[in-house]
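Consortium newsletter contribution from the modelling node. Members have asked for a concrete example of what our holo predictions look like. Here is one, prepared for the magnesium ion complex that several groups have been discussing at recent meetings.
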Amino acid sequence: MVLTQAGVGAGCEQAAAAPVVCERFDDLGADGRPVRLGIMGGTFDPIHIGHLACAEQAREAFSLDAVVFIPAGKPAFKLKRDVTPAEQRFEMCRLAVQGNPAFDVSRIEIDRPGVTYTADTLRQLREHYPGNVALFFITGADAVCSILKWRESAAIASMAELIAATRPGYALSEETKLTIERSGNFRIHMLEATGLAVSSSYLRARVQAGLSIRYLTVRRVLDYIAAHGLYGWKRNREAVCEVSEVEADRSRATELGAAGILGDAFYQARRDDLAHRVKRSRFEHSLGVSETAARMARVYGQDERLARLAGLLHDWDKGYDDEGIRARAVELGIADQLASYLDMPHLLHGPTAAAALAREFPELPAPLLQAIRLHTTGAVGMSPLDLIVYVADVIEPGRYCAGVDKLRDMVGKVELEDLFMATLVYVVGNLIERRKLIHPDTVTVWNYYVARARERAAANDAKGSK
Ligand code: ATP
Ligand code: MG
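And here is the predicted structure:
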């Protein structure tokens, strides 16, 4: 949409009680039965397939009931290098564990002030969980070798058993293992994990060098790195990544559920995606447009579910800057549209979102994609859904601009096309007032709908005088 988002962002979501350790596994052991909980600590800057495969294989080999990934707040060993902000590392972990019911991610280290020490974390976990929950601290062989030097290593040994995963390039001989067990009182289990010679440093270096990290982490994490420009990512370097078509298809089928593409599962999954693609205020705006579009669809006899999904997704590509969105248009093969958007790259996100969503979710219906494509400029001969999304974008409850209330009041009282025209008057008037450029399509749209309104008025007059 062409207006600035003044005041958007004052949403009043209900605050759910914050979990203590993590959302999925706070109640482990509550029924008194023995539980084996794996703890995967690390900086996760970023999380990669080595971490995930290691955790999964530890879960399997040692019959762990669950594994919690705990990104370090301020890692003791990495104080010298610039570590990515904890919230972003947390987000990447959260995205990575999605879809594995045995995994979750915890904020306990992030929320604890000061340098992060494993002993403090284990103590916190021990305080939270009853005695029937046994803790297994999973680490790569590299970390085990130095564990005797960790702060309060004796305390660590008393609170958790260790699972030491083989990691290419780091050997842990039987002798070293015995030494650590004897002198530190540790119980160490060896895990012959699939040797994946991957590390976060390796991924960072590749991104920095403009090389692909496709298949080295999961797709959502890669998308997050791209969307946030982490590690020196240049947005035009790599196409959307597909970790595995099979995995994507499978998770898509789960997401679609019985209700299909317009069902709640797909909506929720895209809502989660969107939360990571755009700023919070933009995310809240999208939810507002979604609700408003659904309500308008109800009022004007259109498909409510289609409208709510179109509203949710209309700003799917709003996370890009001008340079990024131009590159995205090229990458999506719609660069031919660039000419007319030359001085208005902020309007390109409509067409790119439609193209990107069509590529990623081929099941999305064409009318929905069209409404998304047209929501920035409008077009001649818009469908009712197109009109609804265009109007909802302007009148959603998060907009506090003067004049919008008048438009809101018109919903259901005037014909949809008249509401659209009133909205266009408001939008174009605003642009003129602020001495902004108007996209040529929008000018054509204005002329077209003025002519139509005249025709409709003339037809009504003719009816009246009969
Ligand atoms: P960096 O390169 O920044 O040190 P990293 O890949 O080693 O990152 P960390 O966050 O330091 O990742 O590691 C978290 C934990 O995961 C550590 O216990 C580490 O030994 C283990 N680990 C990391 N990569 C692998 C891998 N490829 N295979 C097995 N374990 C791994
Ligand atoms: Mg490391």
